[in-house]
């Protein structure tokens, strides 16, 4: 019997209305989850808002969009054939190449037939009488499922700041996280780029090369390390692929799920000369590996300062105008406590005659006008605005859905003071409701694909366990959840992370509670804890 025969259908659309599992989102997480659920013989419906699969890499088509984890690592490890077959072209993959890869996966594993595109999950209510989730979408679907799985992404709720006058702007405006599918041509235009996080830093050099003039509006300067991106020779890939499984295993045994050169020494275990040599060597190799030059850079402010000052000196040596260089130097957070950026020619871009850096910390944007924008001290005539203003991270895409658990409890209310989960996977009072890379899990501090795989595999194993033991319902206990939330905070407090006003803390969203969202204890330690929980008969969960 196929799933249509097995399940009631909507008389109007002739679509099935009952599933074993509903998954929201068809990025890396949703696709792999679907694959694993199918292996368990479950009927699944994936709802995806976009009109294609790929998530982050479907939406973020902005100029310069690129992954900052190397291609050979930022990919699925669960199919040996797939990882042997696929050929990457560059050291760091560009958005279009990752999107091609994800589409290839969707075809190769025949995933599309269970994915309903252009459909957003809008509401989900747990019906305790039938122990099922009743799920609604913006297309009018009303379906029920035993399990509801959020694969909605940590960085998928794009945020355009509330800017007075935006509706009257006569030019075009864009958000990097919701970029048009057709190429945007900035030739001859005066362009404003607002925001200098990862996306702004990637986009600036590419837009500058095209536009008549680029104004970069900076509130907070960020640290960025050169990528030194380059073609990835077939020979090098072949070599890596000889031991692919072993590389993956080693990566899973690290704090970030990425094979960096993790130092065993503290910054002050070596002489000043040696310290500089180490930073220099890592700068020359490129990428976020830089922040692992010493093992106490995230723990000791004094050690962190040495790395931060090294980068500031690099900025001063690259950017010709000393005033601009100083403005680009971050001073208000330890290096790495906001997501470290990886760039191509970012600082050099400010040596171009057609690029102006505008400090909006001291002279904030007051309003968008029909022909540009006004800051407190200046007026800018513009043809296009590009918002690189980030996301309502980690919780945003989940809380946009009206989720109600036991007794009609509203998830947004439960999380009003900050998200509460057990292992980032489940939240008490919401049975059979799983989150992939949820708050309280390592998620955005890691190679996210590695974190996704670990979560998907944990959830799949849990559902298998339930099937074998004829359990219908799993739920986190409030006690386990309290304990986990405490642990997440405790671990974060031992590091420098909470000292930065970052999106990790929810600081970019007005009114969002200041809580350190990801688990900073390390991917390797975290997955060990998850395995121990299982070994101890799913400690902290109840079944029914
Ligand atoms: C610009 C950018 C660069 C990044 N670079 C890196 C990097 O270098 N390294 C790294 O490890 N990670 C990076 N990330 C993080 C990246 O999000 C993850 O690596 C990974 O792609 C997440 O996959 P996902 O499936 O969990 O979520 P996403 O890829 O975000 O997919 C979630 C999907 O859910 C859909 N969705 C959301 N809400 C609903 C709803 N209510 N109903 C239906 N569908 C819904 C969205 O449309 C989206 O397609 C980056 C993110 C961004 C934005």
Characterization of the model:
This protein is an alpha/beta fold and 544 residues long. The protein contains 17 helices and 20 strands. It has helices spanning 3-6, 28-39, 56-59, 80-85, 95-108, 198-210, 234-242, 244-252, 272-285, 301-318, 322-328, 346-349, 396-399, 411-414, 448-468, 478-493, 523-535; strands spanning 18-24, 44-47, 115-116, 121-127, 132-137, 142-150, 172-175, 190-194, 213-218, 224-226, 341-343, 355-359, 365-369, 372-375, 379-381, 384-387, 402-404, 433-435, 474-476, 541-543. Strands 1, 2, 3, 4, 5, 6, 17 and 18 form an eight-stranded mixed beta sheet that branches. Residues 1-6 have low confidence and may be disordered. The chain binds flavin-adenine dinucleotide. The site of flavin-adenine dinucleotide has 39 residues, from helix 2, helix 3, helix 6 and helix 15.
Q: List the uncertain runs.
A: 1-6
Helix content: 25-40%
- N-to-C span: 28 Å
> What count of helical segments does DSSP give?
17
| Largest sheet entry | 8 strands, mixed
Compact overview of the structure:
By secondary structure, the chain is α/β, with parallel strands linked by helices. Helices cover 32% and strands 16% of the residues.
What brief labels describe this structure?
544 residues; alpha/beta; eight-stranded mixed beta sheet; five-stranded parallel beta sheet; 17 helices; 32% helix; 16% strand; globular; binds flavin-adenine dinucleotide
List the helices and strands and how they pair.
Layout: H1 3-6, E1 18-24, H2 28-39, E2 44-47, H3 56-59, H4 80-85, H5 95-108, E3 115-116, E4 121-127, E5 132-137, E6 142-150, E7 172-175, E8 190-194, H6 198-210, E9 213-218, E10 224-226, H7 234-242, H8 244-252, H9 272-285, H10 301-318, H11 322-328, E11 341-343, H12 346-349, E12 355-359, E13 365-369, E14 372-375, E15 379-381, E16 384-387, H13 396-399, E17 402-404, H14 411-414, E18 433-435, H15 448-468, E19 474-476, H16 478-493, H17 523-535, E20 541-543
Parallel strand pairs: 1-2, 1-6, 2-3, 4-17, 6-18, 7-16, 8-9, 8-16, 9-12, 10-11
Antiparallel strand pairs: 4-5, 5-6, 13-14, 14-15, 19-20
